[in-house]
């Protein structure tokens, strides 16, 4: 794995499930709850950007991936993707999948973010 191509600093965070005062399930992200899993260098792998029409509005999404050095993941940790997110340059991406690269060489982390309005 070429360290020179890992030129992006990302944060991987895990949310803490909680219940709001109205009784609705919510996810708490750092610093209110949850925790930082790891901060690491990554290679960004641009996937695609899409637009779709929903609820009488156009919603743009950006799908992105990052290749990082392999690190130990507890069994089943990423099976509930909605409780993980990646932050790169202040932009938040919901984790949609994680795939091992080679034999403990690296991990590909995939995420989706709503594109910002211009």
Structure description:
With 118 residues, the chain is mainly beta. It has a single domain, classed as Bacteriophage SPP1 head-tail adaptor protein (Thrombin, subunit H), CATH 2.40.10. It contains no helices and 8 strands. The strands form 2 sheets. The chain has a 6-stranded antiparallel β-barrel with strand order 1-4-5-8-7-6. Strand 6 (84-88) and strand 7 (91-101) form a beta hairpin. The protein is globular. It starts with 7 loop residues before the first strand and ends with a strand. The model has no long low-confidence stretch (mean pLDDT 83).
Fill in the keyword field for this structure.
single chain, 118 residues, mainly beta, Thrombin, subunit H, six-stranded antiparallel beta barrel, two-stranded antiparallel sheet, 8 strands
């Amino acid at each position: 794995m070429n360290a020179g191509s890992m030129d992006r600093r990302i944060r991987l965070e895990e949310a803490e499930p909680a219940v709001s005062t109205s009784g609705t399930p919510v996810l708490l992200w750092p610093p209110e709850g949850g925790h930082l899993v790891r901060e690491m260098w990554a290679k960004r792998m641009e996937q695609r950007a899409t637009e779709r029409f929903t609820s009488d509005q156009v919603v743009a999404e950006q799908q992105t991936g990052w290749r990082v050095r392999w690190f130990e993941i507890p069994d089943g940790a990423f099976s509930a993707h909605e409780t993980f997110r990646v932050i790169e340059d202040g932009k938040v991406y919901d984790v949609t999948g994680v795939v091992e690269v080679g034999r403990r060489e690296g991990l590909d982390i995939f995420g989706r973010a709503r594109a910002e309005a211009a």
